[in-house]
Amino acid sequence: MTTRLTVTGADWTTPHIRRIHFRSDDLSAFAGSDATDRYVKLVFLQPGVTYPEPLDVRALRGILPPEHLPDVRTYTALFPDVAAGTLAIDFVVHGDEGVAGPWAAHAQPGDTLLANGPGGAYRPDPDADWHLLVGDESALPAIIAAAAALDADAVARVIVLVEEPGDEAAMALPDGGRVQWVYRAGGPADGLLLDAVRSLEWPVGTPHVFVHGEAQEVMHRIRPYLFGERGLRRDRVSISGYWRYGRTEESFREWKHELAEAERAAAS
Ligand SMILES: Cc1cc2nc3c(=O)[nH]c(=O)nc-3n(C[C@H](O)[C@H](O)[C@H](O)COP(=O)(O)OP(=O)(O)OC[C@H]3O[C@@H](n4cnc5c(N)ncnc54)[C@H](O)[C@@H]3O)c2cc1C
């Protein structure tokens, strides 16, 4: 489904995250989705380019010159309300580089975007012994949505990497939930999340795990720890990179493709 999103308002939920509120004429595609990591593909059209209607981004490749192709960025859709036609997106504002972050920093009511989706596959399993939710700011929206979906008697451990004290976001956790904030504090982020996951005292039983964020940290550090040292089953873990240092979303897709190829080759 492609829908047009119109900005209705915005507020800063933390010093580095701007929540943009949208209205849409048609969010019916969300009706069948109860994943807490629901995401949409936001389409940023190039100014001055006329696009065919209806817009099919994939079909444009090979037709338009590369510089005229829209930029596509992936974002978690928060609080979709099909009847009201509203949803929100929490954008990490990470500086002047990129497309979506700078757009969000300056978005005004009346601005529009196209969105495709939703995708998403994870929802906390109510039968799990406990829940482990780990990520950086990019995964914070999905973690907030997962925390809100936990049963009142659920046990949860949440670890979130943010820039500095003051960047903590509000989240609804059951009494058995604990959140730990980890800070980059201007230093290298390498290994900080893994160190926190390693240092965690694990509750009894097997967790249902959600780990997303910067790809090197998640896929090359935390993933081997969970599957190797902790011996977790694949179907108990939702894990993927959401972005990669030094790469745009386009070149990050190539990184993911290369990683998948390398893993396939190693397995054969
Ligand atoms: C399923 C899914 C859900 C996601 N949900 C969200 C969400 O709800 N909120 C959100 O903010 N992000 C989310 N992301 C991550 C988001 O898609 C990427 O961060 C994306 O690269 C941002 O696009 P951009 O145009 O701002 O930067 P790009 O043009 O892609 O990249 C430009 C530069 O900015 C750097 N960069 C990109 N993201 C970050 C960041 N978070 N912190 C620091 N530097 C960065 C890149 O390394 C690159 O050097 C999600 C990703 C996936 C796959």
Overall body shape: globular
Radius of gyration: 19 Å
**Fraction in beta strands:** 25-35%
Strand elements, count:
12
Top-tier CATH class of the largest domain: Alpha Beta
Q: Are there runs of 5+ residues with pLDDT below 50, and where?
A: none
The structural class is alpha/beta
Q: Which compounds are bound in this model?
A: flavin-adenine dinucleotide
CATH superfamily of the largest domain: Nucleotide-binding domain of ferredoxin-NADP reductase (FNR) module
CATH topology of the largest domain, anyone?
A: Rossmann fold
Give the domain tally: 2
* First-last Cα distance: 37 Å
Task: Describe this structure in a few short sentences.
The chain has six helices and twelve strands. With 268 residues, the protein is α/β, with parallel strands linked by helices. The protein has a seven-stranded antiparallel sheet with strand order 4-3-7-1-2-6-5. It has a five-stranded parallel sheet with strand order 10-9-8-11-12, with helices on both faces.
Structural descriptors:
single chain, 268 residues, alpha/beta, Elongation Factor Tu (Ef-tu), domain 3, Rossmann fold, 7-stranded antiparallel beta sheet, 5-stranded parallel beta sheet, 6 helices, 23% helix, binds flavin-adenine dinucleotide
What does this structure look like?
This protein has 268 residues and is an alpha/beta fold. The protein folds into two domains: 2-119, Beta Barrel (Elongation Factor Tu (Ef-tu), domain 3), CATH 2.40.30.10; 130-249, 3-Layer(aba) Sandwich (Rossmann fold), CATH 3.40.50.80. The protein has six helices and twelve strands. Strands 4-3-7-1-2-6-5 form a seven-stranded antiparallel β-sheet. A five-stranded parallel β-sheet has the order 10-9-8-11-12, with helices on both faces. The radius of gyration is 19 Å and the shape is globular. The mean pLDDT is 95. Bound molecules: flavin-adenine dinucleotide (FAD). Flavin-adenine dinucleotide is lined by residues 39, 73-76, 90-92, 94, 97-101, 137-138, 141, 242-249. Residues 39, 73-76, 90-92, 94, 97-101, 137-138, 141, 242-249 line the site of flavin-adenine dinucleotide.
